[in-house]
Write a structure and sequence with these properties.
There is one protein chain. The chain is mainly alpha-helical and about 110 residues long. It contains 3 helices and 2 strands. The protein has a two-stranded antiparallel sheet. Keywords: Plasmid.
Length: about 110
């Protein structure tokens, strides 16, 4: 077994890719990553720095281990790096729309 190691009594495929995960596992990990990213931005009102992103990914990796989902750290980090720009733009537009709605409500009350 060239690409497999025994870890905690389980055989793990060490060269596993993101694409090898089941769709519900991918969705779950993506949801956790997005939740961490949105939570960080909501708390600090800025994009996370690289070391802060690593803390977020570590947190998600711990949740994955608790669910017995295994994929290399590099695969999760690559996925996160590809998606964080999209998530930021989406969050930015949501915040902008919310701000516009609040202004409209404020000015309609004043009239």
């Amino acid at each position: 077994m060239k690409n497999h190691d025994i870890v905690n009594g389980q055989i793990l495929q060490m060269n596993k890719k993101w694409s090898h995960l089941k769709q519900n596992q991918k969705d779950l990990i993506a949801e956790w990553l997005q939740e961490e990213y949105r939570g960080f931005i909501a708390m600090y009102l800025r994009k996370p720095k690289r070391f802060e992103e690593e803390y977020m990914i570590d947190s998600v990796m711990e949740r994955m281990q608790a669910r017995d989902i295994w994929v290399p750290y590099v695969e999760v980090k690559t996925y996160f790096t590809r998606k964080k720009g999209k998530w930021y733009r989406k969050l930015e537009s949501e915040l902008e729309n919310r701000r516009i709605e609040e202004e409209e409500q404020f000015f309609s009350i004043k009239k």
